[in-house]
User: Which sequence fits this backbone?
C-alpha cells in the first residue's frame, strides 16, 4: 500500500470524518493562477450513498445554480462513491465562502420545479433523474448549522453535539 497517494482524498482518513462538511481538498497555483478544490461531503462515507438518480439531479442543479451566485466556479462534479461533490473555484478561497455558496445554491434546489438540462439534447442520461430525491439530500445538508459544516472530523464535535445532528434521509421521506 502506498504511504502517500497523488490524489489528496485518498490520503484522507474517511473513517474519521463527520458528514456533511465542506473542506479544502487542494490549492494549486499554475502559472500564477490559483485554484481551490473543495470536498463537499453530503453523506457519511461507507454508511450512506446518494442514489444515482438523485445525485445526477443534484449535479445538474448545483452546477447550474452555483454559477448564478459566483463567476469563479470552474467545475462541480459528483464523487464516484456517491457521497458528495467536488467544487473547483478560481482563486484562493476559504472554506466559509464555499459553504455559503453551497447553502445559497441548495436553497435554490429546494425551490426548483424542474431539473435544468434534463433532456436528450442536454444530458447523457436524461431519464436517470430524481428531483424529489435531490431535494431530500439538499434539505439534509441545509439542516446542519453553517458552523457545523466547517467541522470535518468526528472529534470536532462533542458527543452531545453528535446526538443533535439530524437523521439521514430515506427514500420513504419523499
Ligand atoms: Zn446529465
Assistant:
Amino acid at each position: 500500500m502506498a504511504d502517500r497517494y497523488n490524489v489528496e482524498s485518498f490520503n484522507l482518513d474517511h473513517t474519521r470524518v463527520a458528514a456533511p462538511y465542506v473542506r479544502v481538498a487542494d490549492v494549486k497555483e499554475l502559472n500564477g493562477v490559483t485554484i481551490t478544490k473543495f470536498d463537499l461531503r453530503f453523506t457519511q462515507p461507507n454508511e450512506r450513498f446518494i442514489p444515482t438518480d438523485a445525485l445526477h439531479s443534484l449535479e445538474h442543479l448545483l452546477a447550474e445554480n452555483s454559477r448564478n451566485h459566483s463567476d469563479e466556479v470552474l467545475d462541480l462534479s459528483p464523487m464516484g462513491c456517491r457521497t458528495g461533490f467536488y467544487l473547483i473555484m478560481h482563486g484562493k478561497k476559504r472554506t466559509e465562502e464555499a459553504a455559503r455558496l453551497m447553502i445559497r445554491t441548495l436553497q435554490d434546489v429546494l425551490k426548483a420545479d424542474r431539473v435544468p438540462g434534463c433532456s436528450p439534447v442536454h444530458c447523457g442520461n436524461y431519464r436517470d433523474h430524481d428531483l424529489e430525491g435531490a431535494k431530500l439530500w439538499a434539505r439534509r445538508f441545509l439542516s446542519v448549522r453553517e458552523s457545523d459544516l466547517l467541522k470535518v472530523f468526528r472529534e470536532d464535535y462533542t458527543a452531545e453535539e453528535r446526538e443533535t445532528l439530524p437523521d439521514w434521509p430515506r427514500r420513504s421521506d419523499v
About this structure: The longest strand covers residues 21-30. The pocket of zinc ion is lined by residues 56, 60, 123-125 (CB under 6 Å). Helices lie at 52-69, 95-111, 131-142, 146-149, 159-164.
